[in-house]
Amino acid sequence: MKTEAWTSVNLKESIENLCKAARQAARALARTDAAHIDAGLEAIAQELEKRKTFIQEENARDVEAAEAKGTPKSTVDRLRLNDKAFAQMVLGIRQIIALPSPLGAVLSERIRPNGLVIRKKRVPLGVIGFIYESRPNVTIDAAVLCLKAGNATILRGGSDAFRSNMALAAAIKEGLHHAGLPEAAIQLVETTEREAVPVLCRQSDYVDLLIPRGGESLIRTVMEHARMPVIKHYHGVCHIYVHAAADFDLAERIVINAKCQKPGVCNSAETLLIDEGAAKEFVPRIVKALRDHNVEVRGDERTVELAGAALRAEVIPTTEADWTTEYLDLIISVRVVPSLEAAVAHMDKYGSHHSDAIVTTDEAAANRFFELADSSALYWNASTRFTDGFEFGFGAEIGISTDKIHARGPMGLEELTSYKYVVTGTGQIRS
Amino acid sequence: MKTEAWTSVNLKESIENLCKAARQAARALARTDAAHIDAGLEAIAQELEKRKTFIQEENARDVEAAEAKGTPKSTVDRLRLNDKAFAQMVLGIRQIIALPSPLGAVLSERIRPNGLVIRKKRVPLGVIGFIYESRPNVTIDAAVLCLKAGNATILRGGSDAFRSNMALAAAIKEGLHHAGLPEAAIQLVETTEREAVPVLCRQSDYVDLLIPRGGESLIRTVMEHARMPVIKHYHGVCHIYVHAAADFDLAERIVINAKCQKPGVCNSAETLLIDEGAAKEFVPRIVKALRDHNVEVRGDERTVELAGAALRAEVIPTTEADWTTEYLDLIISVRVVPSLEAAVAHMDKYGSHHSDAIVTTDEAAANRFFELADSSALYWNASTRFTDGFEFGFGAEIGISTDKIHARGPMGLEELTSYKYVVTGTGQIRS
Q1: Taking 60 as the threshold, does the pLDDT of residue B229 lie above it?
Q2: Residue A207 lies in a domain
């Protein structure tokens, strides 16, 4: 699956050249106006439409290969660029074109006592390395978002989508060329060699930021090797805490939605914490509802006990490992906790601080939860599934940061920028 | 110089325990109100005043040891906590107490079409590891700033200031204790073992952010070993570009200030770029002025040529290495460039993107410079020496970030925080 130019022998040199070209392109992009960038995005959209048949053919070969090696059906489905997914991908570009450019905005202005005028202006980050897994439409989403924010991007996709990504990257390149933008503004690492990731991680002279989005082994490799800033888009062990004063209808609706609506994503719920004050009534009710939705229920001792004679056999006793596991599947762990503080302590100890919800009719309890819990997004009486750049109204999303610096939670266009201070004086010197 | 508890044998365990305690303290701090934190800061200030004699005695032993091993005088001077420096250090705490707390501010609020109310609230980062060199007053500055922003801090100072830092840390601990704040809110790595830095860099489970501030070898070690986010506070190769349309009086004043007022700091100028259109008149003039201020002048061929018969012998020809060197001394490199674009290209190739200035009477040229150059701070007709949290009006500064993510340029209280989204619903689920 390697192209001629990319062999293990010259991998290091190839990636270094890619990064150098990206740095050059980033310099040019920083000087390109927003309308020209939008024209480039439109040219990419048109080029994708023109090459639709070829891209889908290449995608079909990826899908076939994945099926042949026994890849789980849910993963294969994510890989597939059918007509609907293709149309959505192209529509996504046009939605991003329609968003205002984040660049050039003056974020603050201060006039100092000595007369210096200090303006903080939003500028592109520079070169972004984006390392991700499987879904090919992410290739387009990420490239387009980074370009809209004025950045050059190096994409390293998953090997399962390699042919699809190559076909998409060719369309991007052609689109950039037609629009008179540097072709190195968006480049794909054109090899499936695993060693490409560590090599890319060492290009701190040319890459300003790495964004890894994926599972544990990817994140571990990047953290081990990266010598430049990294913003991780990692896993979500999300909790729903049902408070003693919860509305149980609402609680059931939220738990079922957060677990079942799309179990394979990071903002779905993995653990249900039920307050002792709600447990007697709510445990049997929610165990039944979850089982009715084909959810495997794993419960602590108290949950098993309260499930009742009819349902007890349906609840698998939890082990310590359950509390830290991101199932990404129709499985949930359930624990009865003595208090709100205990619920937060559980989240602190086992959770990923991604998205956590409280269900209660008691506003003071909700505010206490908001204060005590340290998650990128906290919900009161709503599903954790809303942690998403579109749902938050950003108009776009490159992922959901699980880090606390620069960007936390959904990461949109503004989070793909930096700033610089421009200071206007009249000869001020420092004394 | 090691205390009993810190031996190479248990270094790893000791640092891990320190970090775990810091994580606990951070949880408590996140739930502490701003007035209580300010009371803790005041208690630290009072404890320092109470222990002034002891601290200065310990500092004198550091100074003596540094002198005995032949440390340069300028470094020894930075190490010294004389009465003036001590008073300034304590005053600094009270200035920070007087600043508004950055915490709890609502940074944005969105009401979504589905009725969800999404608030972005500023919160502490958590645990910050601060790794720095020599000056002992930085120990207090950093600890106090991080605490004001609600963070727990682990301090790793330079070995030259070890006794001073131990004495300061003891005062901090006592102050925290008196104020009823967790003593682990501010902890010093109580060993001079070099291995402590790599060990600290691996504590990503407990440390949210590392801030290294120092020279190349420190930064290299941290970037090699860190497994958590890092914001570097590194070197400055700053430029003054004198445009063809410059006011030469003003240009001379700015160049002399940026080079001579405090040559040992990162925002002082290291390279002077003179536009060909200004060179004939300005080169001999500025070479003379610099020599009059005891500055060693290193010039490219054109500078040597234009310096004139009387001054030519005073100019040392540059080598390629000069353009990337942070002299931190009364030395400057001078180059004649054909255009503004060439000046920016020089800065792109050799500079550190820290602070760079243009001197011109031509507003269009200044704006072009602001647009093309990619530095954390760009100046028009002012000295680069203003890149500083106090001069920028932040009221404080933990350093000057040379990174582009999270914080760029002067880093004050707000840059020591993160945010979380708190979302209020009425039972919204995702469809």
Answers
A1: yes
A2: yes
Write down the pTM of the prediction: 0.93
A contact test, residue of B224, B430, B431 with most A CBs within 10 A? B430
Retrieve residue A226's tokens. 């990266």
Q: Is A378 helix (H, G, I), strand (E, B) or coil?
A: strand
Per residue in B383-414, pLDDT (tens digit) is 999 999 999 999 889 999 999 999 999 999 99
Residues B225 and B255 in one domain: no
ipTM for the whole complex:
0.94
Cα(A77)–Cα(A92) distance, integer angstroms = 19
Closest CB to A250: pick one of B204, B370, B427. Answer: B427
Q: CB–CB of B380 and A118 under 8 A?
A: no
**CB pair distance less than 8 Å for B420 and A375:** yes
Are B23 and B138 in the same domain? yes
Q: How many CB pairs under 8 A join A and B?
A: 199
Q: Domain containing B66 — which CATH number?
A: 3.40.605.10
**Residue numbers of the domain that contains A307:** 238-386
Mean pLDDT value of segment B47-56: 98
Q: Which has the closest alpha carbon to A338: A271, A248, A272, A277?
A: A277
Do the beta carbons of residue B379 and residue B346 sit within 8 Å?
A: no
The answer to whether A392 contacts B421, with C-beta atoms less than 8 Å apart, is yes
d(CA A216, CA A200): 18
CA separation for the pair B125, B30 (Å, rounded) = 9
- The nearest alpha carbon in chain B to A24 belongs to B348
**Which residues fall within 8 angstroms of residue A272, CB to CB, at 6 or more apart?**
A239, A240, A242, A255, A259, A286, A332, A333, A334, A335
Q: Considering only CB atoms, which chain A residues are within 8 Å of B229?
A: 229-231, 403-406
Interface test with B, best of A110, A424, A426, A431 (most B CBs within 10 A): A424
